[in-house]
């Protein structure tokens, strides 16, 4: 008498069947594509090739245009006046309002330098908050560092201190990339529903609580401990 299949055996068979089915679907799809290519005449193939080349050329031109506008590198701009000019000519801009004496600004610099090279569709700038009182007032910047996230000339969102970045000084570049992706200010290829810092929660390491300190409109460092 044959022994009855165990649940594990049944599951194994179901899985094997699933894999066979999906392989079959992929093969059929490939066969159909190959057949389509076989049936194409010279003219159609040539047109397809031309379309591909044009798309490639277009993306190269777009890339060159971005680079000519100062994308692709993380730059400091000297004044508020420059800010308006820079923002006007680019669709996506990330501007870091920093202060020389603030340690956390150097942490932010490190990550922004990497992201500027990776996301050339976005312009990455830094501006000294002490040299731009008008802008800080207008954009209500009270905590340093703050990133202003700008789309089509309008400030859409802010990253204030490290609160949104896992509340720690040693957040990863991927975490900041995810946060910018949430604001749709870069082309983000990951899953926005799955923040990088959730998968790498570090317990017991330096988990710094950040205070947003603003007293009578004065700008405070997010890493200062003074009252």
Automatic annotation (TrEMBL):
Keyword terms: Cytoplasm, Cytoskeleton, Nucleus, Phosphoprotein
Listed GO CC annotations: centrosome; cytoplasm; midbody; nucleus
Naturally occurring in which organism (per UniProt): Sinosuthora webbiana
Database matches in CDD domains: Phd_like_TxnDC9
Taxonomic classification: Eukaryota, Metazoa, Chordata, Craniata, Vertebrata
NAD is among the record's keywords: no
One Pfam family hit: Thioredoxin
Thioredoxin domain segment(s): 80-163
Ranges in a coiled coil: none
InterPro entries in UniProt: Thioredoxin-like_sf, Thioredoxin_domain
Subcellular location: Cytoplasm, Cytoskeleton, Microtubule organizing center, Centrosome; Midbody; Nucleus
Record text on subunit structure and interactions: Forms ternary complexes with the chaperonin TCP1 complex, spanning the cylindrical chaperonin cavity and contacting at least 2 subunits.
Name assigned to this protein: Thioredoxin domain-containing protein 9
Function recorded in the entry: Significantly diminishes the chaperonin TCP1 complex ATPase activity, thus negatively impacts protein folding, including that of actin or tubulin.
């Amino acid at each position: 008498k044959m022994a009855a299949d165990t649940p594990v055996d049944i599951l194994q068979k179901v899985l094997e069947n699933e894999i066979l089915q999906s392989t079959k679907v992929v093969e059929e799809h490939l066969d159909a594509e190959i057949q389509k290519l076989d049936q194409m005449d010279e003219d159609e193939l040539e047109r397809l090739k031309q379309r591909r080349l044009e798309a490639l050329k277009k993306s190269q031109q777009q890339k060159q245009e971005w680079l000519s506008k100062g994308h692709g590198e993380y730059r400091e701009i000297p004044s508020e006046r420059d800010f308006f000019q820079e923002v006007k000519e680019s669709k996506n801009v990330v501007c870091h309002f920093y202060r020389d004496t603030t340690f956390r600004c150097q942490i932010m610099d490190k990550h922004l330098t990497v992201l500027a090279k990776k996301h050339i569709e976005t312009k990455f700038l830094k501006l000294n908050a002490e040299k731009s009182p008008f802008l800080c007032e207008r954009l209500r910047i009270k905590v340093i560092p703050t990133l202003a996230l700008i789309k089509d000339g309008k400030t859409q969102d802010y990253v204030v201190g490290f609160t949104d970045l896992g509340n720690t000084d040693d957040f990863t570049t991927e975490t900041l990339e995810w946060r910018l992706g949430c604001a749709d200010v870069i082309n983000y290829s990951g899953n926005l529903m799955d923040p990088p810092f959730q998968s790498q929660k570090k317990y017991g390491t330096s988990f710094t609580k950040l205070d947003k300190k603003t007293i009578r409109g004065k700008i405070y460092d997010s890493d200062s401990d003074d009252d």
